[in-house]
Write a structure and sequence with these properties.
This protein has two helices and no strands. It is mainly α. Keywords: Membrane, Transmembrane, Transmembrane helix.
Length: 62
């Protein structure tokens, strides 16, 4: 479970950062570019990724 949380956290963090950059119009090439909705969605997904990473590092191993 610890490994799953770490992998899921990294993926969520990377996807969230990409969506945030596209929503903030700092990364182009998508229909999401310049859309505030994707900026907010990206931030939420990135925060979920950080939470998963933190819980994966503190979790017990079985």
């Amino acid at each position: 479970m610890k490994r799953f949380k770490t992998i899921a956290g990294v993926l969520c963090l990377l996807v969230g950062l990409i969506w945030t950059l596209q929503g903030a119009n700092l990364m182009g090439g998508s229909f999401m570019t310049g859309q505030t909705q994707w900026l907010v969605i990206g931030l939420v997904v990135a925060v979920i990724g950080v939470v998963l990473l933190a819980s994966g590092r503190r979790g017990r191993t079985l």
